[in-house]
Amino acid sequence: MNNHCLKCNATDSLIGITSRACGNSYISYPSGEELDGYLPNIRGLCDSDGLMIQICIQCGQLHGLDLVKMREQLLAVKPNN
Ligand SMILES: [Zn+2]
After folding, report:
1. Which of 24, 49, 67, 75 counts the highest number of beta carbons within 10 A?
2. How far apart are CA 65 and CA 43, in angstroms?
3. CA-CA distance, 55 to 38, in Å (whole number)?
4. How do residues 60-70 score in pLDDT, each as one tens digit?
5. Is the residue at 26 inside a domain?
6. 59 C-alpha to center of ligand 1: Å?
7. Cα(56) to centroid(ligand 1), Å
8. Above 70 in pLDDT, residue 16?
């Protein structure tokens, strides 16, 4: 596994955090709308079972996050979309 931050160049700074909440997850939107249940599959952020991130503890950068996919997926599952 590559444990080198591509943003700040720190080495041995990437920490993986996984939370298997399964259907007990929720998303809150700026409008105040909320989505309860399983999360969408977004590389670098989450899959249906829960949060799954790799973050640099030096600069806070999320690694492997697909920003385009994240926007698409989060808007696709938005309530009243
Ligand atoms: Zn970093």
Report:
1. 49
2. 6
3. 22
4. 999 999 899 99
5. yes
6. 4
7. 5
8. yes
